[in-house]
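Summary for the lay section of the report: proteins are chains of building blocks that fold into shapes. Here we show the chain for Transcriptional regulator and then a coded description of the shape we predicted for it.
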Amino acid sequence: MRTDEPRRGADHNVMREVNRSLVLALVKEGGPVSRASIARSTTLAKPTVSAIVDELIAEGLVREIGPGSTAVSGGRPPILLEFNARSLLVVGVHIGARRTTIAIGDATGEEVARRELPTPKDQTPAVVLAQVAAEAKDAIAGAGLPGAKIAAVGAVLPGLTDFHTGICLLAPNLGWRDVPVRDLLAAALDDAPVYVHNAGQAAAVAENLEGAGERVGDLALLYTGTGLSAGVLSDGRVFHGVGGTAGEIGHNAVPGNTEPCNCGKVGCLETVASGPAIVRAARRAGLDGYDARDVTAAARAGDPVARQVIAEVGEHLGLAASWLINAYNPALVVVGGGLAAIGELLMAPLRAAAAKHALAPALRGVEIRASKLGADAEVRGAVLLALQHSETYYRVVFRA
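The coded shape description reads as follows.
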């Protein structure tokens, strides 16, 4: 049997998918538009365009909205088409150490509903995920869209996640280990496809598309709050690593650090560069009973001890930023998570430490910015990642 013969069936299927993608993209981005206009723009044959459009209408992705203007040459006015953004929904879920946010977006990513609740404590992961699914369904019904199909779900967690298997390998601040998040959520949401990411990856996508990143493409996000992680985008794509755990910078060891970490190891960077690290440093400095917000408020009011505590944490974060700069050579480093809201009291020592430790060629041209999206970054990232993954459902080419 010859192996060099063209695979005509496969080629036909590929071309069909490409043509469908072209047609739907034109309707989605350039509508209202007519079949004839699509044929002219794509150079596809009119019967091919009509067949694709009929298929998209049958699936509810495209709808006819009535006649357009009659051409100068006369004849019947064309029937215009538009993308039906509410035909598909995406669900973004951010399960944080303290709060869980569920956002429902339409097929353009526009948010149509949101739910927030305290992250359940002392409950099994299965119970927590079942509650998340119930809240998502209730939010969809409350938005008046009970018949809309869930095209994809983005689930974001504060820990090590294997994107390829959908398993949360370890989330110390949740107490989760080896939790099949994808399978549990999919079963509770009528087998909708579920994609699992860590918080840093999701925040990086959101900041790049809608926030401080301004679509630079090569971006590293330092995500610091209850824990510490990173999200890296290379040419606009999330860098997952072979096991899906790329970006867990918080669990790199800092020489001389003996603080025990929630992950079970000792000396992790997260223990000196996070919200809990601020509390521990404040306690050592004599600021007993202060939480991270109290320390920040005192620092802003000019308290020298509180300022020093914030500066020390900023220096450790700057060391982390230098590792990202040296390892990935990004165009931009964004500092996200809860600590980013501290502002220049944290950012100034962070930038100074990054400049001190990063290699000069890698540092050249890099800007370090604070998040623009703030607390919304994780859940917006969950929605956007779900949207990008869902594009494959209706065959639009996308970049994740």
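Put simply, here is one thing we learned. The radius of gyration is 24 Å.
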